[in-house]
Specification:
Length: 262
């Protein structure tokens, strides 16, 4: 949907002070990671020197550009439920080979829409705008719905989709549940949603992304040659991805499947 290219629904699950998400140092290229929690805490570390605890209702946005390393770890003090999502956004040609960056947003704009409270993660929605970086025209919204029916304004130039995190929602005659993505297409000016209980959804959208992308492992690229290069450099410890101190082990890259012999 637009430049949104991956959604990883995390949890809900119980974590402890020392065991949680526990994803060791690993690389990225050519994308933004957008991490949003609805419950819990996670410690983000990266090769830029960032060390940031993200809590429920907060947003971490890391730009990989030409290359970055990061980890996602237990905080050392939080025990309880962890629930959230990490979204990837493909960077356009104009910025995908640029420098890496990181930003944290402790507060985000919220709007009331009938039976929903919407938090604008990225872009603009219903008159509210997020300060989070975006390299293309897109929108990301988290909405907590109460029982009832409501209508949301949409940008018709965007294509949109819904991801359900909790509960279920009715879109037209289609019921959408956690683990499902409802593609809404392009050209809609309004979206009517109905919920029969507490529900949490993500609305993702953007202008159609015209650049063809190739995704493999943690990399977003344009060709297998680029992916091969990133793989070799990560395995060799090339300075392209920087250095990161973490108590968790570094994650090795699996060999690209297209280079394997039968």
């Amino acid at each position: 949907m637009g430049a949104w290219c991956f959604a990883d629904h995390m949890g809900p699950e119980l974590v402890t002070e020392t065991q949680g998400l526990d994803i060791g140092p690993h690389p990225h290229t050519g994308l933004h990671t957008v991490t949003w929690l609805v419950a819990g805490e996670v410690l983000h570390r990266d090769s830029l020197g960032s060390e940031q605890v993200i809590r429920a209702g907060q947003l971490n946005l890391m730009t990989a550009g030409n290359g970055v390393t990061h980890s996602e770890e237990a905080t050392g003090r939080y025990r309880g439920q962890l629930h959230g999502v990490q979204l990837w956004v493909a960077q356009p040609e104009a910025t995908r080979n640029g420098p890496a960056a990181f930003e944290h947003h402790a507060e985000l704009p919220r709007v009331e829409l009938g039976n929903a409270v919407a938090t604008v993660l990225v872009g603009s929605f219903a008159g509210a705008s997020s300060a989070a970086r975006r390299d293309t025209a897109l929108v990301g919204v988290d909405a907590a719905l109460r029982p009832g029916t409501g209508a949301w304004p949409l940008e018709p130039a965007f294509e949109h989709a819904l991801v359900v995190l909790e509960g279920k929602v009715l879109v037209g005659e289609q019921v959408v549940r956690p683990g499902e993505l409802a593609y809404l297409g392009q050209g809609r000016e309004e979206l009517a949603l109905a919920a029969d209980g507490p529900t949490r959804v993500l609305l993702l959208g953007g202008e159609p992304f015209s650049e063809p992308i190739l995704m493999w492992w943690n990399f977003v690229a344009r060709s297998r040659a680029e992916l091969d290069g990133a793989y070799r450099q990560w395995e060799a410890g090339d300075p392209r991805f920087g250095r990161l101190r973490s108590t968790l082990p570094r994650i090795p890259a699996p060999p690209p499947f297209w280079g394997r012999r039968a």
